[in-house]
Amino acid sequence: MENKKYSLLIVGLYCYVGHIRDIVNHLKAQNPLIDITILTDVPDEYKNNLADKSIKIENYDVSPVNCKYRWLRFLLIKRKQKSFFKYFAKNRKYDIINIHFPNRYMSCVFKYLRTMSNNVVISPWGSDLLRRDATSLKRLKVLYEKADFITMPADSVGPIGKILLQDFKIDSKKMIGSFWGSDIVDYAIKYGDTISQDDAKERFGLSGRYVITCGYNRQEAQRHKAIIAAIDQHRNQLPENLSLLFPMNYGNLSYDKYIRDYIDEVIEECKKRNLHAVFVTDFLSVEDLYKMRKATDIFVHVQTTDAGSRSVYEYILCNKKIVHGSWVSYKKLESFKPLFYFPVDTLDHLGEVIVKAYKSDNIEIPQGVMDIVLSRGWESKITKMNDFFMSII
Questions:
Q1: DSSP classification of residue 293
Q2: Model confidence at 267, in pLDDT bands (50, 70, 90)?
Q3: Is the peptide bond before 153 cis (omega within 30 degrees of 0)?
Q4: What pLDDT digit, counting tens, does each position of 157-181 carry?
């Protein structure tokens, strides 16, 4: 489809600005005619690395509301949301509004979004639906019903599809296939063979160490403490040169005191158990993110919920041993045998499975799985996104 000009507002509240940045950079490169504005609550230091300086950034002040009563906190935040969007929507028009990681408060301001655009597209990420209680889901349902289109994360036949189709009763005609790509997949295809595991380990100060990477972000749902306890319990069955690597470089916003305290607690857990650990808290380049995957010997992925993590695909691409919670299903990948991971059914058996992964030969990745992973690069996704946006204006 030939490129045409359109205006796009991306609303990225409470979400991982690095992913928003990736989307915007690739979309602008695909179609330089797009006029893009990002509305975000993320501090200025996270707004760099935009490939095109014509992309506009609008600040959304979502300073925390301190109140011990949950119902009152909701009302106060709701009032702040309404006040902001009522002001922001004045004299603004966009061909498309794309909401990422929508929260329950967005349903309260949808009327202001509608005054700005006839095309409101919601892009759930996974945890924004999977980790919500019944009350929050009820409020989110209103938002999804009002949206014109909904993009799907990977493996939409899984729990996200169930919520949207069965619980929310969303018309399947409104649901659009996945647009999510991975810079790391693109990078690995082009440059992967030029980086050795030794080089990758050196980048993180882990030369000569056996590396177990614990989760892929700083959210408590990654269950870092449970991983630490399981490893400590089976320490005598694991190598003496063991190091734990904790990617804490995205997740909830770093200026949130709760997140800072949580990271400190995980650090203290490692110290208390005398486990050597490296914590990565800065945003990394694509090259360094790839090196993190490459430096890993075992990747432990036992978070509570998941809608198809790009990180899992990236560790598969690097042929890493993956210890994976069987309660999180990757239906398309699991249709190929043998499984691409070492399954763990409950956290009670986590340590045993980590030891099993350590003592086993490298796991065999079925070619069908690898073909799906290789298709997850941005180069194969961004054309689809741009064509869809142009088709609805």
A1: H
A2: very high
A3: no
A4: 566 777 777 778 888 888 887 777 8
Question: Residues 228, 234, 239, CA angle at the centre, nearest 5°?
Answer: 95
For residues 97 and 113, what is the distance between their CA atoms, to the nearest angstrom? 8
The token duo for 378 is 């941005």
Residue whose entry in the numeric block shows the structure tokens 């996974």:
126
Cα–Cα separations (whole angstroms), residue 153 to 30, 156, 216, 308: 21, 6, 17, 7
Length of the chain: 393
Helix (H, G, I), strand (E, B) or coil at 143: helix
Average pLDDT of the chain is: 86
DSSP-assigned letter for residue 14: T
Kindly state the DSSP code that residue 279 receives in the 8-state scheme: E
In this structure, the number of other CB atoms found within 10 A of the CB of residue 28 comes to: 21
Residue 240 pairs in a beta bridge with: none
Q: Which residues contact 187 (CB under 8 A, 6 or more apart)?
A: 286, 287, 290
Residues 335, 183, 381, 388, CA torsion sign: positive
pTM of the model: 0.78
Around Cβ 308, how many Cβ atoms within 10 Å?
A: 25
Give how far the C-alpha of residue 143 lies from the chain's centroid of Cα atoms, to the nearest Å. 21
Tally Cβ neighbours within 10 Å of residue 313: 24
* Structure tokens, 263: 């990271």
Q: Looking at 106-205, which runs of residues are DSSP E strands? A: 120-123, 149-151, 175-176
Residues 95-123: tens digit of each pLDDT = 999 998 887 778 888 999 999 999 999 98
End-to-end CA distance of the chain: 14
